[in-house]
Each structure stands twice: as structure tokens, then as C-alpha cells.
Amino acid sequence: EFKLVYGMLYSLKSFVSRISPATSDSFQSYQTNNYKLSMYETPSGCKFVINTSVEWSSQAINEILHALYKEVYVEFAVKNPLLSLQDSIDSELFKSKIETFINTRIREM
Fold first, then answer.
1. 16-33 pLDDT, tens per residue?
2. 8, 20, 73, 106: most buried by Cβ count inside 10 Å?
3. 7: which strand partners?
4. Mind giving me the DSSP string for 2-55?
């Protein structure tokens, strides 16, 4: 499933970059009748992707993904000298922090 989502995002980003003006932002989200897929990409190219219901605003989702990057990824992955950022992150602490973060933010919505 991961490879399919990555391939779809890669294709959508490529398509959007070809048809949009050079000064515009890259692909950020798409929506169907059932869900919204949103992506936040850091300047270093790290991508955070989330599926939500269509009722969630794009601004709220972008704020959540940026906060996830800043409060969880940077604090528990980037600053962890035992993790290699080129590999997948298999840390149970990191996974639990993501779950806690997402569950807390969902209750706030």
C-alpha cells in the first residue's frame, strides 16, 4: 500500500508542477467523495501524508502536519542519534508519540 500511495503522490506532484505557474506551491492535497489525502513536505524533502474525512479544512490539516513534523519528528527522530533518517523509523517510542499526537489533535478538532 505504501508503494502505491508514494507512486500516486509522485505522479500527482509531477503533473501539478507541469501545469502550474513556476511561483506556485507544489501539490498539497486531493479530495474524493469519501476522504481527503493531504501532504506536507519539508524543505529537506521529508513528506508527511494523512487521510482525513472531507469535512476537515485544508488549513487545519496543514497545521497538524507541520506540528507533527516539529513536535514529534524533529524531537524524537532527528534529535535521536541512534536513528538513521535514511532508513524507515522502527522506534516504538516514535510510533507511540505519533499515535498520541494524532489522537490528541483529533479530539481538538
1. 888 877 655 677 888 999
2. 73
3. none
4. HHHHHHHHHHHHHHHHHHS-TTS----EEE-SS-EEEEEE-TT--EEEEEE-TT
Check residue 72 and report its DSSP letter.
I
Amino acid at 24: S
Is 84 in contact with 105 (CB distance < 8 Å)?
no
**Mean pLDDT score of the chain:** 87
Reading across the β-sheet that carries 29-31, which strands appear in turn?
29-31, 36-41, 47-52
Name the amino acid, one letter, at 81: P
Q: What is the pTM of this model?
A: 0.79
Judge contact between 38 and 49, C-beta under 8 A: yes
Residues of the chain with pLDDT under 70: 22-25
- Packing angle of the helix pair 58-68, 92-108 (nearest 10 deg): 150
Give CA separation, 100 vs 54, 71, 106, in Å.
22, 12, 10
